[in-house]
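This follows on from our talk about sequence and fold. I would like you to pick a protein and set down its sequence and fold. Go ahead and set the record down below:
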Amino acid sequence: MKINFQCIELTIQDEELGCTITFSDSRSTDDQFKTEEEIMNSVKKYLLIQRTYAEDEDDVEHYYIESSESYMDFKPNEKMIMSINQDRLETKCNGEQVIIGLNLKKQEFENLLRILETKFNERVTIRRL
């Protein structure tokens, strides 16, 4: 299945226990005005890429991908190749093609690249379009 949407909101949360990048076709603040039924039946499109950090030596780090369109997951040692510029992101994961239109300011784009290259470098390879 092809995931194809225009990203309206990019959120990056880099916290103590992990890092999450979310590309969404709507603004999260819009949800506060929706009823519970509207949220549950939402047709919002998104792609989430997440890494949880190991808490101690015995723990392992986990990488996770989720989308509104299908279930995707990183297999052990799987790499994702992302072709990206300020206007577009293209990738394939587990046979799923993902094309997301971006409209990022230069600073947003540079921050996204920095996070991908530092926090996800073990699993994500960046190719600039």
